[in-house]
């Protein structure tokens, strides 16, 4: 009797172990991941990484085997089950052969030397936007190009489906696969903002009671403003979904009439020190500065486009950008490294909301007006729960109405705006990608209904601007980069002139 009971207990334990293993091997897609597989939002992330030395494929493949493929999402394939009406999508763990995900193209080096290597790289990356990833294996691949460009000896390209994770998670994961070149045993370090000291530390003795009352009134007023701003932003989102459209400008695509099959991806690297100089002098954030410079650059570019088309610039232009916002604490680099080496748990997935940012298109006599206006808008948006609201409401719509209807609603809302904007913080020191020192990182995304997406990636003392454009709408993206760079120079000069006169 005791032996039978013992066997039954062992059997139950074995069944529980098998069930847990199946749960770990199979995980349903999150609502956001399912949305990124809808035809209207079949989004991919492409990151171009410039390397200082010649690529050694064997070292990179070995590094991927030791790190990247141990991450659950990079070792799971997408499996669709169920009927068409109630289709279930799951991540299913599978055996990964790293060599199947690493692509080393062969091309005639002489032809590239005779042509422009930078143009060849842009064409190669643009070609990647026309082919989907194979769903019979994990949704990522690495391209290793033995191609010398103007700013790198060789180039690595990561192509990852957006359902695998958001930009912040994937950036942290890539950084977890890198090390400092100064110390190959250390992970990269990211800059963190110092929290301002609390107001209580500056209070005068004997004013505790009054200060508490003042603090309570300020907190109440702040809460009221947050509620009001959130309600206004929610109403704007509803109006945008239903009828509120941006002005038809030369940079706005119409994705209801056609779906772009090929995107053009270009990048430009500028001095991050110049951006920080403006930031410190104007007492702003990096986001304030790059949004302000972007407003100035877009204003110059649109002016030129209207002149070229022999048209007058509209007096009032409604041009809005969807600014992507990470709504949860960044996954730590050490946490991701532990996940890949020790199998530990950490936060992962698509946790992004967005805010609708009204871009001011104007030609100001004082270039600093662009960044002042950007700061005022961002400060107002900080006193709103718009980003969290878009994330929560999006999940609710997916669960209540289904992925397809949710995709249609979000596609309509974004189609009525003009562009997408995002900014990622990178390492402060030089890093190496599996033993290869990195010169720049240029991430971008495509698959959403915008003809223009601007990404900003800081790294060491550089800021890389990545543009993802529909070439049928914006055929000269390099001119837009020129205007952005010229706007940065004019704003920097205005800041220096302002400092010299004070």
Structural class, judged by helices and strands? alpha+beta
Query: Widest sheet: strand order?
Result: 5-6-7-2-14-13-8
Distance between the termini: 94 Å
SS strand fraction: 15-25%
Overall geometric form: globular
Rg, alpha carbons: 25 Å
How many strands appear in the DSSP assignment? 16
Main sheet summary: 7 strands, mixed
Uncertain residue segments? 13-23, 193-206
Question: What is the number of helical segments per DSSP (H or I, 4+ residues)?
Answer: 15
The overall pLDDT average reads 85
Helix content: 40-55%
Structural features, described:
This protein has 502 residues and is of the alpha+beta class. 44% of the residues lie in helices and 21% in strands. The protein is built from 15 helices and 16 strands. It has helices at 2-25, 31-35, 57-66, 98-101, 109-114, 117-128, 167-176, 208-242, 272-282, 286-308, 333-342, 368-382, 386-401, 403-415, 477-501, and strands spanning 26-28, 44-51, 76-82, 87-93, 102-103, 140-145, 154-161, 178-180, 264-271, 319-326, 352-359, 419-424, 431-433, 436-446, 452-459, 462-469. A seven-stranded mixed β-sheet has the order 5-6-7-2-14-13-8. A six-stranded mixed β-sheet has the order 9-16-15-12-10-11, sandwiched between helices. A three-stranded antiparallel β-sheet has the order 1-4-3. Strand 6 (140-145) and strand 7 form a beta hairpin. The chain starts with a helix and ends with a helix. 38% of the residues are buried.
